[in-house]
Amino acid sequence: MKQETLFVLDTPYRQKLHVEGFRFGRGEKSLCVVGAMRGNEVQQMYICSQLVRQLKWMEHHGDISSGYEILVVPCVNHFSINVGSRFWAMDGTDINRMFPGYDAGETTQRIASALFEAVKDYQYGVHFASSHMSGEPVPHVRVLDTGYQNADLANLFGLPYVMLRKPTPYDTTTLSYNWQVWETNAFSIYTKTTATIDEASAQEAVTAVLRFLSRLGIVKYNCHNGYISTLVHEEALTNVMTPCGGIFRRLVDPGQFVEYRQVLGQLLDPFTGEVRAELTSPTNGTVFFAVDYALVTEHTTAFRIIRRLHS
Amino acid sequence: MEHTVVSLQLPVQESLEIKKNRITPLPGNDRGKRICLVTGTHGDELEGQYVLWELTRQLNAHRELLHGTVDLYPAMNPLGINSITRGVPLFDLDMNRIFPGREDGHMAEYAAMKAMEDMQGADMVIDIHASNIFLKELPQVRVNELSAEALVPLAQLLNVDFIWIHAAATVLESTLAYSLNSTGTPCLVVEMGVGMRITKEYGDQLIAGILNLMAHMGMWDGETQPPREPIVSHDDVAFINASAAGIFLPSVAHNGMVQQGQQLGVIADPMTGETKEEITAPSNGLLFTLREYPVVYPGSLLARILKGGSDE
Fold it and tell me: Complex ipTM, two decimals?
């Protein structure tokens, strides 16, 4: 393992921001893994740390094939992590809305540019991501449908689902989108949590990356074969919206099969505890995403369901 | 008359409401035109608040001169303005990056959709922004090159100092202006002043321009002033960004002509007394943007110059 500083940013009143990378093996640029770009992506940084630990052990035991290089960047934005801000604390901008970056531009454009310079040119790219929709998804690999994607490769992670998403204008400035444009096969992996550590899904994510590398012959790693992933098109998901605001009582979990008209959750009056509304499933299917916070507004996407799919 | 464009219940007791005030002409005076004046999409941009207040006051005082419908939307992001938050609280995406909104989207996306639906079909929409807390801007209209041919002649009536025709970018396809223009409702974006402040003289300048545009549209018979002739720029703009971290101390005034090589300010280190960087103008021109907020990182935007002008 070789630890190196990928780039340094000077800052006022604090120490310099050093963005660290961990390289394993030597040879063609095979896989790059990027973790936390936002200040609350603790789970994403943790997964990378566990991957670094595992790859270090494997390299020591000769389990990384010759001719391949792997780079892991656990955290790009510890400046925001250390002050509890999801976005760049100075101006509220989001590094993952700045790619491919601009080296003469604003601060987060420069960070994105320096990071992209370090992580482009890899054959495969994995970003441990978090969504702008706060909630709990089933662990899955997300691939942007840019026309450059290879969704079949996403099956090699062996996670239960691969989701294909049509990019919106704001997706065009993400790392995954730009990786694809620059001919890296890019995958975003979503696990159960963001600001807290979920050990089981973190371990599942580490195993998924090692399984992917093993199937490509880059590492030797003997593990369970995982799932034959189910491909889900995002636009085919059924959203269940809240008809009012209030306290949210969730009655089903992501990954669970639900039946048509089954009660998925309740909305309670925050003062009297009366049930204001019940959310029922409009279809048989598997819960792909569920809100995980106690208070919701009207018109919140409380659940996303894969229609007519048994879990 | 006050109308609620969209109302969405919040978790505890209150609702998020986007409202508009509709001012209509006296009976028999309506020539059928409608203009929408929109502001407060970013909760830290307040310049439009004065514009809408003063314009409403003038229109109400002389309704006999009004010949069309004026819809005024002072707070597209009421929770943001109320809580001094640029974005929509509890929502990650910039509200001006989610248009045209979505029926099955988050509360903010749904609200964006309903607000845009309400504006569609108007003869003109003016979306008033105020830079952010970091930068002070000269009154300007920004126009996407894709709609420049139709919009620049209208922007020239708005009494602004210049018109910036900028390149198209995919990420900008989700702004209110792009979404309206691409669906046949003309929309002009005004940027002026600085975030969290009100610059009254800029507000008065824009109000004169709005009345001038309304007169051109046949909606206003009151007295108007000839608009100032704006400079029209096709992205001929120099950006000056910090290379060092520290405190930016400008040595020039906003809205002045500068010469290539002229010092614009320094970046200072209060701990050591050191000057970490001297900032100089890369070209002659009009200093139309100047940083207001002193703390800077490498990359922080310090100034923008509209290139050109005399060496004299």
Answer: 0.89
